[in-house]
Design a protein that fits this description.
By secondary structure, the protein is mostly beta strands. Helices cover 0% and strands 18% of the residues.
Length: 71
């Protein structure tokens, strides 16, 4: 997690599944509470995996630069 003046960057990882064929093309959504220790204020919430060099940066999930919430 990185708390900046204009954005908050949060990155989550998931455990890899066993190799082989699978019928589901993605992961289940899992709610998670993040305690920032301070108010969000006017900052954007950004998915860290979408930043340059991030694991998901070239995927369609990051087409908007990874911004998940804008105040």
């Amino acid at each position: 997690m990185r708390l900046g003046d204009t954005e908050i960057v949060v990155t989550f990882t998931v455990e890899a599944i066993a190799p082989g064929g699978h019928t589901c093309p993605g992961n289940d959504e899992v709610p998670f509470i993040v305690d920032l220790g301070e108010a969000v204020g006017d900052r954007e919430l950004v998915d860290g995996a979408c930043l340059s060099g991030g694991e998901a940066a070239s995927t369609s999930f990051c087409a908007q630069g990874g911004t998940r919430w804008t105040p």
